[in-house]
Amino acid sequence: MSETTSTNEENKLPLNGRRAIPPNYSNDEENEVPEMEAFGLIPRGFNPRDYLRVVDIYMFKEPHEINKQEHHTDRYYNPKLIVRRGQAFQIQIDFNRPYKPETDQFWLEFLMGRYPQQNKGTYIPILVGNVLKPGQWGAKIIHRENNSIRLSIMSSTTCIIGKFRFYVAVLTPFGILRTRRNSATDTYILFNPTSQLDAVYLDDEKEREEYVLNDVGIVFHGNVEDVKSRSWSYGQFEENILDACLFLMDKAELELSGRGNPIKICRVASAVINSRDDNGVIAGSWNNSYDYGVAPSAWTGSVDILLEYYSSKQPVRYGQCWVFAGVFNTFLRCLGIPARLITNYSSAHDNNANLRLDFFLDDEGKVDTKLTKDSVWNYHCWNEAWMTRPDLPVGFGGWQVVDGTPQETSDGMYRCGPASVQAIKHGHVCFQFDAPFVYAEVNGDIFFTRMEKNGTQVVENIDTTHIGRLIVTKEVGGDGMVDITEEYKFREGSDEERLALETAVMYGVKKQSIQDTTYQPQTDVDMDFQAQKAVLGNDFKVTITFRNKSRNSYTATTYLSGNIVFYTGVTKREFKKHSFTAKLEPSSSNSFDFVIKSSEYMRDLLEQASFHFFVTARINETGKILAVQKAVMLEIPTLRIKTKGELVAGKETSVIVEFTNPLKQTLENVTLRLEGPGVLRTIKKQFGRIPMNSTLTWEVRFTPMRPGLRKLIASLNSDALRHVYGELSVQIQKP
Questions:
Q1: Any idea which positions bind Ca(2+) (predicted)?
Q2: pTM of the full predicted structure?
Q3: 207 carries a ligand binding annotation
């Protein structure tokens, strides 16, 4: 008896006292979905055929058809429907008779995993409505003909990434009738870098083409003096690669409900790309013996590696940094996360992340290899993935370092990232994940230390310029090399670079040895940063104010950095840099004004006209750091909407939209839109150009249908200016 009990126990899923259902981290497993879900006893004579019944479903999933064309998924060698989240796609349902909206009720269901739950995003019922809201699940009928309807379906911009099972459910008085399980209607949903609401939104089409859709890349290797390059096939569209990439998330045991978040996906993927501690994709080998495997230098791309792992479920031998990075890049691009492969020349591997690589010398001045644990790599490859970082302060989104090469553990596993490149550059290494480690890879100082016989250490030499000499990636749209060192660090030896280093130390990166005192801030000097309110297209003033409350005279080496950012806080470009030394007299305040000229920011300005300023200052006499950051928004001009005469339902009237171009340039390719829900359908009009300071007037004639309080909404879009809106509330009278 006892034996049978124990085997039963083993067959049951492991449950613990904290969760009602087992963990749900397999995209492949399924649950049984009943075709007939009865509400109670089914009366005799009930025949499902008497009710609305689904005869066929057409997914428009061929590469030349609308869905894969509009979603840029036509290159995936995969027969199923593949769409990107937050963007509408179409399907057609054929019923056994014409659909009658008054009496028939049906809905759509998307399910993932073995335990679908609505609050986890793994069971998604979609009712058919009249409007699609951007970025939210919904469906509406766009065409009806005979027994067929065509639906437009919108998925959520935070939807889980992966493969969903699809059902159509019809309500009858006695129960729910569902379509039979049909794998041909399975739908893959991926990240959408073209949707402004998606966390991976990338605004530049050429960059999207490169960082998401290009399936071949270049790996730069060699060393600083002799840069070499080689091609690498990412192959993210090849047969079974998408399934292999989804399997990696199952292998990493990432809960299905967490798979809509690129931060989580990158973090678990950086662990599962290497085989250390989780039997991941590639086994690393740096010792020049590659028995029972393939030498890292022999691989030409990611496809063989991923397919071998997908079928064998065992680590593929062998890889080194560029192999890990190449496979990681395939994974990210395949799922729709913009990604690129980075090479850092003279890369520090700092075992204790103290920004100091200790090379111990013996009595003769040679390096003592037993004592020396830190190392400098000729080059090291990692990846950058593009995403917003809602978990960090504004300004730290954009490119994030992720590294699949196993070097050090992070939270107990061999993984690294995502770490904000912007945070690394400015020394703000307090922000997760693993920024101190990456900061040390590109910034450490090399200390040459001699051990005395009595155990004391004598620092003989410090090399502050060797680490992170050159950081590069492949150019967009070509095979050339782009130097991106300045995205990671200020110029070697510059005041700003030392300042960023000291900021990193202030934020808890270990520097120097144990004798170091704990950080003590400069309390007798305050620094403040203010920006003048400004309208887009105008110059504006920013002011840095120091207040010296002490009786000492100080000098402060100060650095001002102005960055153009997306409204999500992602940095696009640094457009202003200025360094100066401020003399601070005792017990006095000093203000320093700087004019930000429109010519400096207009060329790269993003639609929401927002900036992010960093100011860091070092008090030279004490070596203490002051740091401040601020987000600044410019005011964007608005559209003016006026109506002529009173508005009466059923009577023709007109509305006037006006806009004056405030910029010191002509606006090209101007498009205006006007709509009023319940008042008029969207009307679009294109205007070639609006010269500077001139006013555009557009009169629209329309007939309001229904009385009541309504809203007219207008928008203007052009090459140089976006996010221009106007609105007007109108009362429509009864006739």
A1: 443, 445, 492, 497
A2: 0.70
A3: no
Among candidate residues 174, 635, 155, the one with its CA nearest the CA of residue 166: 155
Instruction: Report d(CA 35, CA 450) in Å as an integer.
Output: 77
Establish whether 380 is a catalytic residue. Answer: yes
- % residues pLDDT > 90 (the chain): 43
Rounded CA separation 19/26 (Å): 17
Q: Which of 356, 391, 402, 400 is nearest to 504 (CA)?
A: 356
Which one of 159, 245, 321, 416 is the catalytic residue? 321
Q: Is 526 annotated as a binding residue?
A: no
Average pLDDT over every residue of 693-704: 88
Q: Residue 8, annotated ligand binder?
A: no
Tokens representing 149? 């309807």
Q: What is the pLDDT of residues 94-106, one digit of tens each?
A: 999 999 999 999 9
pLDDT, tens digit (0-9, with 9 covering 90-100), for 186-242: 999 999 999 999 999 999 999 999 999 998 888 898 777 668 787 788 889 988 999
Q: Which of 580, 665, 577, 572 is nearest to 611 (CA)?
A: 572
Whether 143 is a known active-site residue: answer no
> Which domains are seen in the chain, by residue range?
36-190 (2.60.40.10), 216-507 (3.90.260.10), 525-633 (2.60.40.10), 640-732 (2.60.40.10)
Residue 102 is labelled as binding a ligand: no
Catalytic residue (choose from 72, 221, 349, 380): 380
For residues 709 and 677, what is the distance between their CA atoms, to the nearest angstrom?
11
Question: Does 266 qualify as catalytic in the annotation?
Answer: no
Distance CA 461, CA 128 (A): 72
Closest CA to 260 of 110, 402, 155: 155
Res 513: pLDDT: 44
Percent over 70 (pLDDT), the chain: 87
